[in-house]
């Protein structure tokens, strides 16, 4: 068994980590979160008050918007001074997505009840909500109630409209989040919006692409494949779809094979990454999945995948399995060695127009007490800032690099306790970890979304067991969802 438990029973997050550590099965997904109890952890002290600069124009909130100043790179990758760390709503909910508006507001989606403070706009009756906060994450500007629970969201730049995926359908909110511009029914898992307003939504194995007004442009039916995520680049006119397929052949039977496809808005396949026939894998028999895909603020395409062991497809070029991948390794936590079949994360950057892979890196946790053996760490979110620095997040078993030294707001966190909600920030050349921290402070959970723009960075998490770091400013709940915010980098 590759995970390490300490002092407490199995949490939903730890159960999921134990399952994936055993190896992939056909179409297995992470265990859902169950209801949790409210935490009793104390707010941290020592976090510096953020400096702010006036925004060029007012945003979704009623009050004038201010944008935090970008910060210098932290002196240590294990130290971070967030401007906020707060629960969102009551236990039993979850934060499932986060983004930053062009006017520096933080937008969080999920299932929330009992969120205190700020006005409420009701666009539907249900537990689903979109929360708008200022750029520090301390001030709740508005709660927008929706009919369906929010699974994902993305903000259009530069327009500011919010594309939202819910279990009742996909919808587009206006920049003020005061009304629904259009909506289409049916449960939706993931959503993306391009700069010109093209929206793509995932529902099971089908991806539907809409124009800015909500008219259907094309519908991609990808039967026989598991679809995990979607992204849109209106500059190239392409829609990117990522996932994996369960197959077999050659030496690898059965095997899961990651794939990344680019389609134009008429539904024609323009390029593909990974996705070789099983009989061309050779001995690359470790299961692989493409879990998340996103357009970065730098105009590049980013992928977060996972693999069950080091001998995987991600060691090879996305375009040609016979060539090595342009991977960057700096130490044992970015190298797939001594892994067994523990699931670990893989991050990659692509040219969206051609599909050429530009860079990649393994991310793995390790058990220091067992010869630094690789342990499970999986991704749930990826993005990049304007300079190409990569931000990723997810859940990790014991333990990430420097875990015992992780310090938020001047206070060292409690030891690992059964599933760490992590965020990693890499330099644009992938040669330096600028930040690698967790927000679990004796609790357990999963980072479900990361966002960065200008002077604002944020992570949204699902709380499986209370005990998350709490920072300065008022609390916006007692459990369920969680938000951390910190300055973006200069």
From TrEMBL:
Residues of the signal peptide: 1-26
Highest taxon listed in the record's lineage: Bacteria
Region (Disordered): 28-87
Keyword terms, alphabetized: Signal
PROSITE patterns (UniProt xref): PROKAR_LIPOPROTEIN (PS51257)
Record flagged with keyword Signal: yes
Biased composition (Low complexity): 46-65
Name of the protein described by the UniProt record: Uncharacterized protein
Species of provenance: Micromonospora auratinigra
């Amino acid at each position: 068994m590759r995970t390490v438990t300490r002092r407490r029973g199995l949490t939903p997050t730890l159960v999921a980590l134990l399952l994936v550590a055993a190896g992939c099965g056909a179409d297995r997904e992470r265990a859902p979160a169950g209801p949790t109890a409210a935490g009793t952890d104390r707010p941290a002290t020592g976090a510096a008050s953020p400096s702010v600069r006036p925004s060029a124009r007012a945003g979704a909130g009623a009050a004038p918007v201010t944008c935090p100043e970008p910060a210098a790179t932290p002196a240590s990758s294990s130290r971070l001074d967030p401007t906020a760390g707060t629960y969102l709503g009551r236990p039993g909910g979850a934060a499932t997505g986060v983004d930053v508006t062009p006017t520096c507001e933080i937008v969080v989606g999920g299932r929330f009840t009992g969120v205190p403070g700020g006005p409420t706009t009701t666009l539907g009756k249900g537990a689903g909500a979109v929360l708008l906060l200022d750029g520090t994450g301390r001030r709740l500007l508005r709660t927008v109630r929706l009919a369906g629970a929010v699974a994902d969201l993305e903000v259009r730049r530069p327009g500011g409209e919010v594309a939202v995926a819910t279990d009742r359908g996909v919808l587009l909110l206006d920049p003020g989040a005061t009304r629904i511009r259009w909506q289409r029914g049916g449960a939706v898992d993931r959503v993306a919006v391009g700069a010109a307003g093209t929206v793509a939504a995932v529902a099971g194995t089908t991806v539907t692409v809409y124009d800015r007004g909500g008219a259907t442009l094309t519908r991609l039916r990808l039967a026989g494949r598991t679809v995990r995520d979607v992204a849109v680049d209106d500059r190239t006119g392409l829609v990117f779809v990522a996932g994996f397929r369960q197959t077999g052949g050659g030496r690898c039977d059965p095997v899961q094979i990651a794939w990344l496809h680019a389609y134009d808005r008429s539904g024609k396949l323009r390029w593909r990454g990974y996705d070789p026939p099983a009989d061309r894998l050779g001995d690359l028999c470790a299961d692989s999945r493409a879990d998340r895909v996103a357009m970065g603020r730098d105009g590049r395409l980013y992928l977060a995948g996972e693999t069950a062991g080091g001998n995987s497809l991600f060691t090879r070029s996305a375009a040609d399995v016979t060539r090595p991948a342009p991977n960057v390794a700096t130490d044992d936590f970015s190298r797939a060695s001594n892994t067994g079949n523990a699931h670990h994360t893989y991050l990659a950057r692509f040219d969206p127009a051609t599909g050429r892979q530009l860079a990649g890196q393994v991310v793995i946790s390790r058990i220091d007490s067992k010869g630094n053996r690789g342990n499970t760490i999986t991704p749930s979110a990826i993005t990049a800032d304007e300079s190409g620095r990569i931000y990723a997040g997810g859940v990790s078993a014991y333990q990430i690099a420097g875990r015992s030294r992780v310090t938020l707001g001047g206070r060292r966190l409690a030891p690992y306790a059964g599933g760490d909600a992590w965020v990693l920030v890499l330099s644009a050349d992938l040669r330096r970890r600028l930040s690698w921290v967790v927000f679990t402070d004796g609790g357990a959970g999963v980072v479900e979304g990361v966002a960065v723009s200008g002077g604002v960075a944020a992570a949204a998490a699902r709380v499986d067991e209370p005990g998350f770091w709490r920072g300065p400013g008022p609390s916006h709940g007692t459990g369920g969802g969680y938000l951390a915010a910190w300055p973006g980098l200069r």
